[in-house]
């Protein structure tokens, strides 16, 4: 098996990131919004791993930090979504103003 060219992995990373950005801009459902944010974070992870042979181990270390941030974002974000859903029976982004004082 040969190595995958760097341009292919960076192209795939850019495609995944673009799909995530399009999902964040177009959709209004909070669950889909969080899935698109996770897709963008995974695209960045793919780029870090693809570029890590050129930058040393630093790219792989950044991946662990991004995974930790993604886990924290998912836990806090899902808690907020559950809170909004219990109050308004919907996960539409417009209902997030209900959490203000």
Please give a structural write-up.
The protein contains three helices and no strands. It is an all-alpha fold. The longest helix has 31 residues, at 58-88.
The strand count comes to 0
Largest sheet: none
What is the percentage of strand-forming residues?
Answer: under 5%
How helix-rich are the residues, as a percent range? over 70%
| Unreliable residue runs | none
Number of distinct helices: 3
Label the overall shape.
elongated
Question: Overall mean pLDDT score?
Answer: 84
Along the chain, the helix and strand elements come as HHH
The helix/strand class is mainly alpha
Distance between the termini: 59 Å
User: What integer value in Å does the Rg equal?
Assistant: 17 Å
Task: State the gist of this model.
With about 100 residues, the chain is mostly helical. It is about 75% helix and about 0% strand. The chain contains 3 helices and no strands.
Topology:
Layout (H helix, E strand, L loop, with lengths): L5 H21 L3 H26 L2 H31 L13
Helix pairs in contact: 1-2, 2-3
Comma- or semicolon-separated keywords:
single chain; 101 residues; mainly alpha; 0% strand; elongated
């Amino acid at each position: 098996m040969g190595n995958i060219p760097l341009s292919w992995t960076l192209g795939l990373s850019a495609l995944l990131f673009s799909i995530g950005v399009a999902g964040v801009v177009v959709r209004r459902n909070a669950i889909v919004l969080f899935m698109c944010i996770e897709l963008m974070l995974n695209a960045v992870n793919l780029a870090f791993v693809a570029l890590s042979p050129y930058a040393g181990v630093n790219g792989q270390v950044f991946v662990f930090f991004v995974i930790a941030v993604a886990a924290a974002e998912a836990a806090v974000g899902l808690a907020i979504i559950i809170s909004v859903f219990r109050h308004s029976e919907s996960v539409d982004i417009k209902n997030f103003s209900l959490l203000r004082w």
